Design the sequence.
């Protein structure tokens, strides 16, 4: 990763210089760093960013500066974190009706508090 400055309100795709080949059955989730969020207002636009197991290449992180001041980064600074976790991609099946559940057909907010 090269040094850069992100102006207030600016968003940009940042190449990390790190390339991956994640094995089948796993995926990577690119996550923001809480310290950057609270101290500088820096966030990952599409958090979590998914790196699926068939992706090959450099990891890119889309950052946005929600802060009021420009934020500068030097090569080697940590701008995000990567979580490797299990990944399932089941084959989808079209059905005419879904099975019942205790929740029923309720949508957002229908499970209680």
Sequence:
């Amino acid at each position: 990763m090269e040094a850069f400055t992100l102006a207030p309100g600016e968003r940009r795709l940042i190449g990390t210089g790190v390339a991956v080949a994640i094995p089948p059955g796993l995926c990577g989730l690119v996550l923001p760093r809480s310290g950057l969020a609270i101290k500088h207002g820096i966030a990952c636009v599409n958090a979590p960013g998914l790196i699926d197991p068939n992706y090959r290449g450099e990891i890119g992180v889309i950052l946005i500066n929600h802060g009021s001041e420009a934020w500068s980064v030097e090569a080697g600074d940590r701008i995000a974190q990567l979580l490797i976790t299990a990944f399932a991609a089941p084959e989808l099946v079209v059905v005419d009706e879904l099975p019942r559940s205790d929740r029923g057909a309720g949508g957002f907010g229908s499970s209680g508090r």
